[in-house]
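Try it yourself: sequence plus NAP, in.
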Amino acid sequence: MSAERDASSYTLITGASGGLGLALAEAFARRGHNLILVARQREALESVACELTQRFGIEALFRTCDLAEPLQLSGLLQELEQGERRIDVLVNNAGIGTAGVFVEQDWAREQELIELNVLALSRLCHSIGGGMLKRGRGQILNVASLAAFQPGPLMSNYFASKAYVLHFSEGLRYEMAPHGVKVSVLCPGPVATPFFRNSQMKSGPLERHKLLADPEEVALLAVRGLEKNRAIIIPGWRNRLLPCLLRLAPRALVRRIAARSIVPLLPKR
Ligand SMILES: NC(=O)c1ccc[n+]([C@@H]2O[C@H](COP(=O)([O-])OP(=O)(O)OC[C@H]3O[C@@H](n4cnc5c(N)ncnc54)[C@H](OP(=O)(O)O)[C@@H]3O)[C@@H](O)[C@H]2O)c1
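Structure, out:
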């Protein structure tokens, strides 16, 4: 990953204003990557970019963009296409969750989830991955979740969006490999980030059972996995067992257990 980089090479990370994206930005900065950080909150992005530039002597730029707004995303992609900066690593990390009975949720928020978790991620892969393919080099890391391996009643849209990310990334990996572009997908279990609060969920039960991973740890394992060109990166040995167990278990049981594990995270109504 590092041998190919020079001063005009950049790593673009979405959702880098906080949570896992911030930890990923730091992990890449530590390895000397110049960064383009994307999210909606200008102040947070500015302070992350400033801090990483000072600490690691890299160039960290930022762009505010609501990736769930197709017009804003078009503007960002156009700017990137016309600019001089070459994106050699794309990290599609931005994502949101929704929880509760699907049809009782606000449709606008469910649509936003699909726009961000599915459409924006695919479009960024299409546009930036297209440039990588022409140059015959590049790396893409898409952030899915352990949720990608199972149906998730009471988080149906979120789990399905992550299943899309997993399968899409695996397909893309096969298509892009002969052209020198590497594609990996990160599938973390629960991580201690504002994700739960932002998704109107409670993380208390996960905290009490010490089930939340440290975002810096997950980011480090993600970057190492990317350096080894792993297809699917699952941080933590317990988490790595889950997809195997899910393949063996009856599907009805999987649905029931998934629902039961989500219920304690739902806010009281
Ligand atoms: N935390 C977990 O337990 C967990 C587990 C598995 C997978 N994941 C996945 O990891 C990724 C990062 O999640 P996280 O835990 O770091 O969540 P988070 O703390 O809520 O961070 C989400 C990031 O996405 C950005 N974002 C949200 N909506 C956006 C939009 N419309 N346009 C642009 N950026 C947007 C946010 O920045 P702004 O608000 O500034 O836009 C923020 O930087 C997600 O894809 C999530 O599904 C998380």
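One thing you can check immediately is this: Residues 107-135 form the longest helix (29 residues).
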